[in-house]
C-alpha cells in the first residue's frame, strides 16, 4: 500500500494513521514517492517518521530520483533510514519524469538518464561499503543495517531501462496506467531475461496502479480528481482525456479479481496507490489484501 502523500491537506495525524494501519494490516510493503515542486512531504524526512511509526512492514521508496540529490548525502540519509527501520528499507530509484523538479533544486537535466542514475548508484554503494571516497578522516556513515546498503529496485516502464538497471538493481518497481496485463508480462519477461543474462537471481517484480473503491461513478470520479491534482505538469485537457482509462475503479470483488490476474503473470507484488486520504479507502483495500496474505 502506498501512503497518500500526493493528496492535499495532509497532516501528522493522517500520515501516522495510514502508516500504523498499513503496518498492522496484511501488506508486504509501505510505499511512498518523491516530488520536489509539489506540496507532498519530503521523501527522506518522511522515511525517518515511517521508521518510527512502523515495526514490521517493508518501507519502499517508489521512487527517489538520485539526480536531484548529492549522492553522498543521499547515501547517508538512506543508510540512516535503513538503520532506523532495522533493515526494512527497499530503495526504488528512477530518473524522474518532470524537468521542474530538476530545475527546483538546480540539478542538471542532462543527467536525467540511466547513465546519470547508475553513476550515482555507484557512489552510494561505495559509501555504504565504508569506502573513503574523499580525503576525509573517516568514511561517511552510518553503516546501513543491511551489509552493502539497502536493496535497490529500478522504477521504470521501459525495457531499455530495465536491461540497463540489471547491473545494479535487484528488482523492478513498475507502474501501469491502464492495467495492460500483456504489456506488463512482456516487461517482466525482459527483466527475467536481463537478470539471467547478468548471472543474477531472479528479480523482484512489482507494479503499481492508482485505485478507488466504491460503486457507481464515484470511484472513477475520485481517480479523475486525483489525476487532475497530481498530474499538474500536464495540460488539463490531456489529463481529462486519459482519466477514463487510467488507474482502476470498482468494488472489492473486482479489485480481488484484478490482483489475481496480476498474480497469474508472475507479479511478486502489486503496490496500490490511493487516490484519496480517506481512511475508509484503506480499510476497504485492507479487506481485499487480506485474501492474499
Largest sheet entry = 8 strands, parallel
The CATH topology corresponds to TIM Barrel
Q: Give the full name of the CATH homologous superfamily.
A: Luciferase-like domain
How confident is the prediction overall: mean pLDDT?
A: 97
Keywords: Flavoprotein, FMN, Monooxygenase, Oxidoreductase
Protein name: LLM class flavin-dependent oxidoreductase
Brief sketch in words of this structure:
The protein is 43% helix and 14% strand. It has eleven helices and eight strands.
Can you offer a commentary on this structure?
There is one protein chain. The protein has eleven helices and eight strands. The longest helix has 17 residues, at 181-197. 41% of the residues are buried. The protein has 293 residues and is an alpha/beta fold. Helix content is 43%, strand content 14%. Strand 4 (151-154), helix 6 (159-165) and strand 5 form a beta-alpha-beta unit. The chain has one domain (12-215, 251-292): Alpha-Beta Barrel (TIM Barrel), CATH 3.20.20.30. The model has no long low-confidence stretch (mean pLDDT 97). Strands 1, 2, 3, 4, 5, 6, 7 and 8 form an eight-stranded parallel beta sheet that branches.
Amino acid at each position: 500500500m502506498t501512503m497518500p502523500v500526493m493528496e492535499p491537506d495532509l497532516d501528522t495525524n493522517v500520515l501516522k494513521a495510514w502508516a500504523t494501519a498499513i503496518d498492522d494490516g496484511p501488506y508486504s510493503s509501505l510505499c511512498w514517492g518523491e516530488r520536489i515542486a509539489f506540496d507532498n512531504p519530503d521523501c527522506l524526512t518522511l522515511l525517518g517518521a515511517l521508521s518510527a511509526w512502523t515495526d514490521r512492514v517493508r518501507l519502499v521508496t517508489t521512487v527517489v530520483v538520485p539526480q536531484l540529490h548529492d549522492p553522498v548525502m543521499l547515501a547517508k540519509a538512506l543508510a540512516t533510514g535503513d538503520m532506523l527501520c532495522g533493515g526494512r528499507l527497499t530503495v526504488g530509484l528512477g530518473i524522474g519524469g518532470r524537468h521542474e523538479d530538476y530545475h527546483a533544486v538546480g540539478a542538471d537535466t542532462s543527467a536525467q538518464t540511466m547513465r546519470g542514475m547508475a553513476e550515482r548508484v555507484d557512489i552510494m554503494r561505495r559509501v555504504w561499503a565504508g569506502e573513503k571516497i574523499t580525503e576525509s578522516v573517516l568514511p561517511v556513515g552510518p553503516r546501513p543495517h543491511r551489509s552493502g546498503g539497502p536493496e535497490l529496485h529500478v522504477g521504470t516502464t521501459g525495457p531499455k531501462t530495465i536491461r540497463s538497471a540489471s547491473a545494479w538493481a535487484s528488482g523492478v518497481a513498475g507502474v501501469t496506467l491502464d492495467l495492460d496485463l500483456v504489456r506488463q508480462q512482456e516487461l517482466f519477461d525482459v527483466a527475467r531475461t536481463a537478470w539471467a543474462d547478468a548471472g543474477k537471481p531472479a528479480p523482484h517484480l512489482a507494479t503499481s496502479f492508482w485505485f478507488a473503491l466504491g460503486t457507481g461513478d464515484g470511484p472513477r470520479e475520485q481517480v479523475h480528481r486525483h489525476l487532475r491534482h497530481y498530474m499538474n505538469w500536464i495540460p488539463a485537457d490531456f489529463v481529462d482525456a486519459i482519466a477514463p482509462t487510467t488507474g482502476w475503479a470498482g468494488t472489492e470483488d473486482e479489485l480481488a479479481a484484478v490482483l489475481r490476474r496480476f498474480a497469474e503473470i508472475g507479479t511478486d507484488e502489486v503496490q496500490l496507490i490511493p487516490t484519496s486520504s480517506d481512511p475508509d479507502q484503506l480499510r476497504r483495500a485492507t479487506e481485499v489484501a487480506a485474501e492474499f496474505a
